[in-house]
Amino acid sequence: MADHERPVGADRNDLTRRNAAMGAVRVAGPTVAAISTPTGRYTAPVTPLLLDARRARHRPWRDYALFAVLVGPNVGLLLLFIYRPLADNIRLSLFDWNISDPEAEYVGFSNYAEWFARDDTRQIVANTAVFTTAAVVGSMVLGLVLAMLLDQPLRGRNLVRSTVFAPFVISGAAVGLAAQFIFDPHFGLVQDLLARIGVDVPNFYQDAHWAMFMVTVTYVWKNLGYTFVIYLAALQGVRRDLLEAAEIDGASRWTTFRRVLLPQLRPTTFFLSITVLINSLQVFDVINVMTRGGPQGTGTTTMVYQVYLETFRNFRAGYGATVATIMFLVLLAITYYQVRVMDRGQRQ
After folding, report:
1. Which residues contact 239 (CB under 8 A, 6 or more apart)?
2. Which CATH homologous superfamily contains domain 121-300?
3. Phi/psi of residue 94, nearest 5 degrees
4. Is pLDDT at 155 greater than 50 in this prediction?
């Protein structure tokens, strides 16, 4: 049909269809960015999901870089100040090295065999076990009792809290010097109190059992502020509604403490048991100031004090490293067992 023979309104209909098609493309927006190229070939539409996928390919590298910046310095410090000295200590335990002699002789596991065969090993291990157990139990039990007492609205409780916490921030040497005067058999505070009630005063510096008792009490006194503050903070998060419900149900104080309060303090108790155990095994200053490992030879000598004696008194650095390595392995095994017990309790 010729142009002059087209029906009236045909041009108008073509224009309407063309505008409708262009509007459909505009409505589609970014969903269809291109249908064809100047060459007439079809190209895949570019969608926001495709753009996000392309950006996501580069995102892990940014995450890794951020992780390295945040964690890298901490890992480096751990390697430099923890794991490298630990590896050097284990390596040194395989040598017989006298500090005064620059030459070190490789002896393998001879130092370990000597430690197990020595006569004083059993006494030193027993001293370490008694001191550590008494320090952990005494610090945690007394800390919990004081925290429960001072959690009440009592007059002057802030002063008492500060008094209990003060020995913890004082050096162990200073606490040991103060305890020396307290336990002095001639003019000490304990001697005066026992004499007033007619009790014979034991000589804490000549009897091994009383010396261990004195050192343990001194360390518990110093460490009490730590367990007290941790338990006091944990008591602030205890659910009071459960305690009130137990009281309404007629539960006794002991039942409420055992069934309601202690389960809520279990994570805190687990944390304290590990930290206090580690700190107790590392006690040196109190023993060195008060008894120097005596009396009666090894009356209060623990494994950490044996490390000091062998390394800096007998100048046997290799043997001292052996004792330190054995301590590390024992502590690692105990901590692993505690973690397993805690995980089992949480699952139940």
Report:
1. 264
2. MetI-like (1.10.3720.10)
3. -90, 5
4. yes
